[in-house]
Write a structure and sequence with these properties.
There is one protein chain. With about 130 residues, the chain is of the alpha/beta class. The chain has four helices and seven strands, in the order E-E-E-H-E-H-E-H-E-E-H. A seven-stranded mixed β-sheet has the order 2-1-5-4-3-6-7, with helices on one face.
């Protein structure tokens, strides 16, 4: 999937470079209370998989104002990116946040989850694809 992500607390990346990995992308907005509530589960997920070379956990913010302060305030440990509108549409677009997109090792979107998901739900869905 040829999608460019612009790093906020990390370097820029293209999703093509992650082929062969299971990718979980959490799309959020900084002013979304449910998105904020989901961060501890995503941090736990990131910590659980950070040494697994076959899994990548990514956050994509739909807004960039105050994003660095937001990352610091909520203690986000996983890499956070911004995305342009045309690349966002390649992920299927986003009607509501948070939206989580699960991509298999071949670069195919397997699932899209809208709303809060906890560590156990997300890790179970990742493990199915490993």
């Amino acid at each position: 999937m040829d999608i460019n992500l612009h790093g906020v607390n990390t370097g820029n990346i293209n999703l093509l470079s992650l082929k062969g990995k299971v990718i979980l992308i959490n799309i959020f907005q900084t002013d979304c209370p449910v998105c904020q509530e989901e961060i501890p589960s995503l941090n736990k997920l990131y910590n659980y998989y950070k040494n697994n070379k076959n899994v990548k956990i990514i956050g994509i913010s739909l807004n960039s104002d105050g994003l660095n302060s937001f990352i610091d305030y909520y203690g986000i440990r996983y890499p956070v990116y911004t995305i342009n509108q045309s690349d966002l549409s390649k992920l299927g677009g986003v009607a509501y946040t948070p939206t989580t997109v699960l991509i298999d090792k071949n670069g195919n979107i397997i699932e899209r989850f809208v709303g809060f998901r906890d560590f156990y739900f997300l890790s179970t869905n990742i493990n199915i694809l490993l």
